[in-house]
Amino acid sequence: MQTLGMPHGTLSLFYIFHFYLFGLIGVISALLFVTRKSPVAAALWLVSTMFCLAAMYILLDAQFIGAVQVLVYAGAIMVVFLFVIMLLNLGQGEGIDVRGVGWKIVAGAIGLGILAQVFALTRAKTPVNLTLPQGYAAEQVAQHGAVAPIAAPLFNEYLLAFEVTSILLLAAIVGAVLLGKQKEARDVA
Amino acid sequence: MMSFALLQAAAAGATRTSSGLEILPPPPSGGVWFLATIVKMLITFTIYMVGVMLVIWAERRICAFIQDRRGPNRVGPHGLLQSVADGVKNIMKEETYPGQAYLPLFVLAPAMSFTTALLVWAVIPYGAPWESRWGTIDMALAPLPVGFLYILAIASLGVYGIVLAGWSSNNKYALLGGLRSSAQMISYEISMGMAIIPVLILAGNVSLSRIVSQQAGRGLHWNVLTCTIAWFIFFVSAFAETNRVPFDLPEAESELIAGYHAEYSAMKFSMFFIAEYANVMTSCALMSTLFLGGWDIPFTVWDNVAPHTFLKTLVTFAFFWAKILFFVFVFIWVRWTLPRFRYDQLMALGWKIMLPTALAYVVFIAAMTLGLDAAGIHPASWQYAVIMLAANIIIAVLLFTFLDKGRLVSPAYSRLDKRNLEKLRQLDARRARLAPAHSEGGAD
C-alpha cells in the first residue's frame, strides 16, 4: 500500500505534485507577507501561508493538526489580528518602524543560518526510534478515527502538562482583562 | 490520484468498522472512484446553486404571505423565475468601484464569502451509501475522518469575506458593519462549537458519517431528542453565524445603510446575496446532519439495513432535503417575525447565556453518558434514548422557565410589572383626553 508522508522512497505523483504546489504557494505567500507595506494585505498573505501549512500536515496524514491549523490560526487568531488592524486603522504612518541596514543584515544572516540547518536536517539520517513504520499514521486514523490517537495520550499520559498549559492560558486571559480594566479606570479618573 | 483514493478508502473504512453496523464492501478504486467523485461534485454544485435560487424565491413568497401581499408572481409560474431575472439583471449591470476602495480585496471579498459556504458541502453525507456493482459509493463528496473539524475550520473563514468587504470599501458604515460582524461571528462560533461537543461525546468520533450512523434507526436516537439544549444553542448560533434576523447587525439598515455591502453593486452584490442564502442552506444541512439524523428516515429501519440499493439512496436523499427545507422555512419564518437585537443584547446573549449554558450542558451530557454506561445500558438501546429524552425535557423546562423571566438579556425584554403598566395606561388615557384639543386647528 502506498502511503502519504514517507520521507524517502517511492512517492506517488499525486503526493509530489501537491507537496511542491503547496510548498511553492506557502513560500511565496510568506515572502509577500514580510514585504507588503499594508498591514491588512500582509495579514492575508500570512493566512495563505497558514493554509499551505495545513495542506502539508494533511499530506503527512496529520489531518487533525491540519484542520486545527486552519481553525485556530487562519480562522481565529488572524481574524482577531485583522479586527485589531481595522479597529485601530493601522497602516497610516507607514515605514516608521522599519529597521536600519544593520538589522536587515542580522535578520538575513539568521534566516540563512536556519535555512542551512534545514538543509542539514534533510540530509541527516533520522534515528530509527524517531521514525514511525510505513503507513502507521494512516492505519491509526483508519482504526481509531482522526482525533482519538491524539486525545488518548493527551488526557492520560500528558494530562498534567495539558492542564498546566490551560492554566497558563487562563492566567493570560485574566491578565489581559486586568490590563484593559486598569487603563479604563485611569481614563475615568 | 491512486494514493488519495486509498486514503479515502481508509477514511470510509474507519467510519464503518467503528460504527458497529454491518461492514459494507470497500469503495471502488481508481477510475470509478474518480468518475463518481466528479458526478457527485456536479450534483452537489447544481443542487446548491438551484437550491439557493429557489430559497431566495421562497423567502420572497413566504415573506409576502406573512405580510399579506402577493410577492413576485410575474416571471414564470408563481414567479419561480424571478431569481433568474434578477441574476440576469445583475450580470448586465455595470460594475462600479468606489474611488478610494482597496481594489484587490474589494473584488476578492464577495468570492470569499461565497466559496466558504460552498466548501462545507464537501463533507456532508446527503444519502445512504450505495452498494453499487463497482463497490460502495459514499454519498458525501469527501468523507473526511476529521469531518466536523473541517466544517468548523471552513466556517471560521466565513468571516473574512464580510470583514474584508467592510474594510476595503473605505466607507465608515461598511467598516462598522464588518467589525460588528467579526465580533458577532467569533462570539457565536464559540457557543456553536461548544454545542456540538455533546453530539461528539455521543458519537465518539468527529467524522460526519459516524455521527449519522450513530443516530440511525427509528429516529429515537436523533440528537435533537438526546441533546435538545445543544440543538437549541446551535440553532440560535446558526442565526448569528448567517447574519439573519434577529442577529443581522452587520447589515442593520436603520443604522448602517446596508452595512458591509453598502458599496457593492451588480454581480458582486449578488454574490453576497447568494452567499447569505447559501449559508442558510449550509446551516440547515448541518443541523439536519448533526441533530436530525442526516439522511435517516424516522419510524423505520428500512434505510439502515442491507441491501443498500440505489432506490434507498434516492429516498434518503429526499428525506435529507425535506429536513433542510423545513429548517430553511423556519429561518424565513423567524426573519419576518422577530425584531432585531440591540448590539449589547446580542453580545450578552452570546457570552453570558449561550456559552455558559453550552459548557454546563457538555458536563451534563458527559455525566449522563458515564452514568448510563455504569448502569449497563447499551447506547444503541431504546431505554438509553428514552432516559436521555426524559432528562432533556426536565432540563429544557427548567432552562426555558429561567430564560423566560425576561431579565437575562436586557430589561427591555422583561415583562412590565403591574405598577408600570398602570402608569403607562394613565399616560395613554391622558393623551387620549388631550388629543382632540390639539388637533382642532389641524387640516388633516
Structural notes for this entry:
- The complex is a heterodimer of chains A (189) and B (444).
- Chain A has helices spanning 13-35, 39-59, 63-87, 101-123, 136-144, 148-155, 159-188.
- Chain A is an all-alpha fold and 189 residues long.
- The N and C termini of chain A lie far apart (70 Å).
- Chain B contains 15 helices and two strands.
- Chain B is mostly helical.
- Chain B has one domain (2-72, 94-412).
- The model of chain B is unreliable at 1-22 and 438-444 (pLDDT under 50).
- In chain B, α2 (31-66) packs across α11 and α2 (31-66) runs parallel beside α12.
- Classes of the chains: A mainly alpha (189), B mainly alpha (444).
- The A-B interface holds A 1-4, 12-15, 38, 40-41, 44, 47, 63-64, 66-68, 70-71, 74-76, 79-80, 82-83, 86-87, 138-139, 141-148 and B 1-4, 6-7, 10-11, 13-15, 17-18, 102, 104-105, 144-146, 149-150, 152-157, 159-160, 163-164, 166-167, 175, 178-179, 182-183, 186, 204-207, 210.
CATH homolog superfamily of the largest domain in chain A? NADH-ubiquinone/plastoquinone oxidoreductase chain 6, subunit NuoJ
How many separate structural domains of chain A? 2
Number of strands of chain B: 2
- Give the CATH class of the largest domain in chain A: Mainly Alpha
Spatial sequence of strands, sheet with the most strands of chain B: 1-2
Please give the count of helices of chain A: 7
Helicity of chain B, as a percent range: 55-70%
